[in-house]
Amino acid sequence: MGKIQHDQHRPAPWLFLFGTLAWTWTFLGMAALLGGGLYGFPNVILAALGGLGPLILPGILISRGRWDPDLDKNAVAFYRRAFNPRTLTWKWALIILGMVLVLAVGPVLLDRGAWREQGLFSPGSIFTLLIGLIFGALEEPGWRGYAQEGLQRRMPVLWASLVVGVFWALWHLPLFLIPGTYQASLGLGSLAFWSFNLALIVGSPVYAWVYNAPGKVIFGVMIYHGMGNLMRELVPDVSNWAEVGVEAALSLAVILVAWRWITKSFPSVSNKSND
Fold first, then answer.
1. Residue 144 per-residue DSSP state
2. Which domain holds residue 47?
3. What is the pTM assigned to this prediction?
4. For the chain, what is the largest distance between any 2 Cα atoms, rounded to a whole number of angstroms?
5. Using an 8 Å Cβ cutoff, are 143 and 168 in contact?
């Protein structure tokens, strides 16, 4: 009985990861099967529902008791903390925005051809800018706020971040089958396909650091993801390998600076006393 009660108050990161894949692949899979592109009806609705999977699943699991009440008493408290800008200090806000600038401009500087032909500023449509900003930010309560938090209680932060990165890459797969998406323009199985997914995986330690270093601040990693998407839409398209290089460099910097911290796991106090 005690073991069951103990498990009920622990995060369930694997349930979240596989559940999010099932949720998103179901909706995006239907959109892919229907054809007609991303912005036709009902595909635009199906795509929106699929994209909200990482936001919705934590609430379902927390409402079922699969969370640490020392962090949040219930799902409402979890989302209130996630969307609270006051949890992020000005110092960390500036650090995160500086990293976003490196993430966006760095690949352009590495890809001289894109820079020379288009310059440093080449914005997409307002609709695309808003989609990247909003949906990018809304993914993070799930990926880092729930999955990263749960996994790093069972394994080192670095390995937890890479596991999340693999699932994050898998989560995007149906988008490669839907005409009108950025991923479909890369081509399923192409070199750009592999570099896109590799960038997600090698960049995940940075997301883990942005979440943990300010004190488990979900809003900070939401800003990092959303603003990163936005800034990428404001600069010219570059080689995906340039993006991989910048992501890898940022991750390596984080790993070197925070080696002792990022190679540890952080079990909760209750886990330490009961396991």
1. I
2. 2-274
3. 0.92
4. 66
5. yes
Residue 58: partners with Cβ closer than 8 Å, 6 or more residues away: 16, 75, 78, 141, 142, 145, 146
> How does pLDDT run across 141-192, given as a tens digit for each residue?
999 999 999 999 999 999 999 999 999 999 999 999 999 999 999 999 999 9
CA distance 171 to 242: 22
∠ CA 119-124-130, nearest 5°, is 135
Condensed to tens digits (0 to 9), the pLDDT of residues 223-270 reads 999 999 999 888 888 877 888 999 999 999 999 988 888 888 887 644
Q: How far apart are CA 43 and CA 211, in angstroms?
A: 32
36: left (phi over 0), alpha (psi -120 to 50) or beta: left
Of 149, 126, 133, 134, whose CA–CA distance to 58 is shortest?
149
Q: Which tokens is 3 given?
A: 């073991």
d(CA 108, CA 272): 47
Total tally of structural domains belonging to the chain: 1
Backbone angles phi, psi at 268, to 5 degrees: -70, 165
Q: Tokens at residue 129, please?
A: 């800018």
